[in-house]
Amino acid sequence: MIFTGEKKNRLKRRIIAMVLCICMVMALSGTSGFGPFAAGENTGVATAGDADETSNVQNTPAPAGNIADEITDEKPEVSQTADDQVSEEQSVEETITEEPTSEESMADSTVQSMLPLNWAVVESGRFDTPAENKYIVLDLGDGSTVFEDATLTLINEYNGEEITLAVDTILDTTLLFYASFPDASCRGKYRVASVQYTAGGVLYEKNLMDDDVAPRFGVDCDITEEPDIYLGGEDFDEVVPNTDENGTTTVPSITNENTDATDVTDVVNYDSSLQSDLLDLSDDFSSANVIGIDGENSNVDLSGVVLSGDESGITKEVNNDELLSSSLNQLVFSKSPENIIIVLDPGHGGTDEGAVRTWNGVKYCERDMNQTIANACRDELAKYKNVTVYMTRSSTTESLHGSTGADLQWRCDYAHEMGADLFVSLHCNASGVDNTKTGAEVYVPNVGYSTQAHNVGKTVGAKIGEKLKALGLANGTTYERSSENGTTYDDGSIADYYAVIRHCKEYMIPGMIVEHGYVSSQYDCETFFGTNEKLQALGKADAQAIAENIGLIEQNRVNNEMKITGWRKSGDTYVYYIDGNVQTGFFVVDGKKYYGRENGQVVKGWQLIDGYYYLFNESGAMVISSWVQDGSGKWMWLDGDGHMATGITNAKGTYYLLDSEGHMLTGWQTYGDKWYYMNESGVMYRSCWVKGSKGWYYMCADGHMATNETISDGGYSYYCGSDGVMATGWMYDGSHWYYAGSSGALYVGCWAKYKGYWYYFEADGKMATGKVNLNGTLYYLNGDGSMATGWIYDGAKWYYATDSGNLYLGCWFKYNKKWYYFNGDGSMATGFIDINNQRYYLDASGALIDGNWFAVGKDWYYATSSGALLGSNWLESNGKWYYLNPDYKMATDSVIIGDKKYYFDANGAMTRSEAYVAPKADSSTDSTTDTTQLYAIMGGTTYTATDLANRFIKEGKAYPTAVMAAGGAANIEAFCKIIIEEASAEGVKAEVVFGQIMHETGYLQFGGSVAPEQYNFCGLGAVNATEKGYAFKDVRTGIRAQVQHLKAYASKDALKNECVDPRFKYVERGCAPYVQYLGIKENPSGKGWAANEKYGIYIVNIINSISTKK
User: Fold this and answer.
1) Is residue 697 located within the same domain as residue 592?
2) 853 - beta bridge partners?
3) Cis peptide leading into residue 130 (ω within 30°)
C-alpha cells in the first residue's frame, strides 16, 4: 500500500490516538509503572496480526639546607621480575624512547540508556513486498526524559543486515517510525534491535535485544514461533553466517528470546460481541502487533479491561491473566508442555508448485492441494486434547528456505525446534506417464539408526494407508526406501533415501511421507482431489490415523528420553543428548565445553553470549586458555572460561594488557588512571626499574608505574614523583618533605644532621615535625623539621627540652629560681595539681606558688614553703586564726570541727566558737561524716602506667586478655597506658580513672549486668540485667567516655576530644570536683555519680593504695 501525504497524516493521528488509548488502559488498570504490562510472569503476546584520575615534587632546598656528607650517592639496585617471557637480552635498562605524556580515554561517546521500554506496536506480523510506510511505535520511560531526536535499528535475521529509521513523530514518551520494504531483496525475519535517542544533548542507546524485548516481524515470510493450533513455548534464532564478496564470513551475535507458555485446555473462537469503542484504529491498524515490556511475547495483563476492535481494527477481550495470540479470527491459548507435538509438512510451497496437471479444464496443483489436506488434518487434530500441531508453512505463498536441499533440512530442523514427536510430510504423487499409477503410498523410516522411529513410523503409516484405502483410494501400502548411493547414519547403518525422513531420524523423530494419490491420474484427481471437501476428507483421515496412535507416539517419546545419550547430527552441526534430554546452553563433554542453542545445535565461531564473546572451533568445542588472532592479525586471549579477556590479564602466569576489544597492547599504555609498559611481546613489566630518557621509573608489582608514592626495593626506599621519575635530593609532595641521595634511596627511620641542626625522618621517609616519641623518649621538632631545645611553645602548651632534645616528662624542673612541673605528655602544668597526695598550685606562667596566700577567683588558699597547699588545718597569721577546709579553701562562714562550731568573718579570721551537739541520728538518716582530705578529680598525674599496672597485679586478679586484646589492649600495661593518655588529654587525673574502673568492675572481673565486651568500665547507662548500659567499639573509646563523664562532673571546661560520652549532656557541669563528691550522699549539693554510700571514698582508698617508684 502506498500512502499519500493526507493519508499518512491521518494514520499519524490514529497512531497518536492509539497511544492515548493505551495510556487510558494503563490508568484504568490501577497499576503503577507500566500499567497493564505485567512484570512478573512471561507468558505470551496479544497481537492482531500474524503473531508471530598531586602536587609536583619540588626539587627545591629544604628549610635548613643540604644533607651532611654521610649521605651517599648510589645507583639503585635494578631488579626485574617482569614475567618469564622477558629475555636476558631485553634489559630493563634500555632507554624507552616513548614515555607517558598524557592520559588516554577509552570511554564510549554513547551512553547506555536505562529507560524502560513500556510497550511497542508493529503494524503487522508480516509485510509482503512492496510495503511502504509501515509504522513501528515505541514508548520509553516515565515522561521525565525530553526526547530531541531518535533513530531505530532493525536487523534482518536472515543476513544480519541493519536498517536505520529516523523518527517521524515524538509525542511525550512515544516515538513513531516508518519502514518501507520495496522488493524481495528485503525478505527475512526482522527484529527491532536498538533505539538511539538524544536528550539534553547526550546520545543514548537502548539495546532492546539484550533486554529480550525486541519485537519481530516478517517480510515476505511468516514468524513461525507460534504453532498453528497452540502458542509455541521457546525459540532460539539460528545464527546465520554472512559472507561478503571478499569471502569474509562474520557471525551475528546470539540472542535469546524467552517465552513461557500458559497451560490451557481449549481453543476459544472469536466472538464479535466483544467489540468496544475503546480502541478503534480500523484501516491501517488491522494487523497491529502489541508487544509487552518483559520480553518479546511477554504478558499483556489488562486486568479485565477490554481492548477491542475487529478485522478492520483490533478486536480482543483480555480477561485477567489469560494469554492471547491471534490467527485470523481465532484466539489461541498456550499449549501444555505434556502435549504430543505433531509437525505437519505441506509439501512444496511458494514458487514450487509440485506436480501439476489439468484434467477437463481443471488445474490440479499439488502445492495447493497439499496445503488444503494439511489444514484439514490440523483442524481435525485440534479436536483432540493434549495434542499440539505445528505446520512448516501456513500458506501456499510462503517461499522455500533457500535451495531445495536447504529447505528440506530446514523443515526437519523446525520439527526438532518445536519438539516434534511425529513429522508427517503431506504430498500427492505423480508418475512419468499419465494414468499409469493410482492410489495412496506411505513412505516410512527404515530400521537403521533408530528402531523406535521405524516402528512408530511403520505403525502410524500403516494406519494412515488403511484410512485412505477406506476412502476408496487404491493401495495404501507402506514402503521403506534406503539410500541408493551408500549414505549411512553415524552408527554406520544405511540411511533413508528421502531427506525429510533421514534428517528427522537424526533427531530421533519418526518421519514419514504420505502420498495421497497421483496428480498424474485423472481418476485420482477427479475422484479424490476434485473439491475442497474431498481434499479435506483426506486430511481428516490422516488426522484420525495419527490420533489412534497417540499412545504409541507418547511411549516413543518416553523411550527416547530414557535411552538417547550422545551426539546426533543436526544439519551442518550436532546435538548432544543425555538420557534423551537435549543439552542446551553451556555443557561439558569429555572435558570440553560446548554451547547448544535452544534447539540443541552446538554453535561454532565467535559468539556473543550473556555479554561475553566466546570462540568455538569447527567441532563446536569452546577455545579456552589460548591466544588467537583476529582477522587483522591482532592477538587476543581467551581465558579459562572462554571469555575474551580485556584489561590486565594473567595468561598462564604472565601479565598482559588488552584493550576493550581484547587486543594485546605493547609499549607505554594507560589503563584507568595509571601507566603501564609492555615489551614487544606484550609482556607487562612488573616489580622492576625501567630507564627512560628522563630517568628511572618503577613498575610496581601489579604493573602500574609508581607516581607520587614511596616504594621499597632491596631494603631501600625510593620516591617517584607525579611524572613517575625517581626523585633525588630534597623533595616535597605537597604535604611532607623527604630527602633522597643521588642513588634515589630515601632517609628512613633515622636522624640526620644538617648545618648544626638535627632532623628525623620517619619510617616512611617523611621529615618529622612536632612531638616524636622514639623508644619512650619524647622530642620536639620545629615546623622546619629541626630538633628543638630549651623552652618550646607549640601554640597551646609549653614544653622544655634538654640540650639532647629530650622533653621533661612527669617531673619538677627548677628554672631561674622557680619550680615548674611537666605532665606525663611533656606539657608544662598550670593551676592545681595533685602529686603524691599533695596539692600544689602553679600560676599561669607555670611557676609554683609557695609560702604565701593566693586567691583563685573569690577563694583564698595557703601554700606552704614546699608549695603544698594547707587543708583541713588551722593557720595563725598576724595574730588571727584561719581554717583551711578539706578542699584547701579558706573558711569564711562556719565550720564544725569535733564538738565545736567555729565562726569566721568574710576575711577568714575566726570570730568565735561554741559547743556543738550533733543531732541524734535515727535509722533513716544515720550517716557518717568523713573528714578525709578531699581528692580533686582534675589535674595532672604523678603516676605512670607501670604504677597502675603494678597495683592491678598486686590485687591478684586475672586480666581478661582475649576480650581486651580484641579491643586494643593486649595486656594490663597497654590498658593502663590508654588510661594515662586519655586522662591526660582532658586534664583528668589518671589515678582517678583507674580507681573508678577497678571499683566498678571488681578489678576487671565484671560479673554484674555489664559484659566485658561492652568496654563500658564505669557502668554508663546500666540499670539492671535487662538494661545493660552502653557498649563502645574498643577499650580506648570506653575509657574516653568515662574520662569525659568524670570531667563533666568535675569541671566546666570544654572537652578536648570529640564527645563519645552519650550521657555528658545530662550532667550539671562542675557539681562534683572531688572524688568523694561522686557519691550523692557525700556531695553537699546532693548531686553526684552514684547513690551508693561512700562511693567516692572507696575510689580514694584504691588511689591511696597505688605505690610509685618515684
Assistant:
1) yes
2) 862
3) yes
Q: Verify that 346 and 468 share a domain, yes or no.
A: yes
Rounded CA separation 98/180 (Å): 53
The whole-angstrom separation of Cα 282 and Cα 7 is 13
Within a domain: 71 = no
Q: How far apart are CA 967 and CA 1036, in angstroms?
A: 8
Q: Are 697 and 724 in contact (CB under 8 A)?
A: yes
Residues 580, 494 within the same domain: no
* Phi, psi of 88, rounded to the nearest 5 degrees: -60, -40
Alpha-carbon distance 1085 to 705, whole Å? 69
Q: pTM for the complete prediction? A: 0.35
Instruction: Answer yes or no: do 581 and 533 share one domain.
Output: no
Q: Is residue 1052 left, alpha or beta, with left meaning phi > 0 and alpha meaning psi from -120 to 50?
A: alpha
CA nearest 165: which of 145, 137, 186?
137
C-alpha cell of residue 801:
627540652
Q: How many domains does the chain have?
A: 4
Expressed as residue numbers, the domain containing 371 is: 337-553
Residue with cell 536505520: 164
Q: What is the mean pLDDT of residues 1006-1014?
A: 88
- Are 963 and 1053 in a shared domain? yes
CB 609 within 8 A of CB 638: no
**Same domain for 468 and 582?**
no
Instruction: Provide the CATH number for the domain around residue 1060.
Output: 1.10.530.10
- CA distance linking residue 229 with residue 333, whole number of Å: 9
Question: Residue 574's pLDDT is what?
Answer: 87
- Rounded distance, CA 38 to CA 298, Å? 8
Task: Tell me the per-residue pLDDT of 532-566, one tens digit each, with 9 for 90 and over.
Answer: 999 999 999 999 999 998 887 877 766 665 567 88
**For residue 4, which phi and psi values (nearest 5 degrees)?**
-85, 165
Whichever domain contains 144, its CATH number is 2.60.40.10
Measured CA to CA, the distance from residue 1067 to residue 1086 in angstroms comes to 13
Q: Shortest CA distance to 59 belongs to which of 739, 749, 760?
A: 739
Domain containing residue 513: CATH number: 3.40.630.40
pLDDT per residue as tens digits for the range 72-117: 333 233 333 334 333 333 333 333 444 444 333 333 457 878 888 8
276 inside domain: no
What pLDDT score does 282 carry? 29
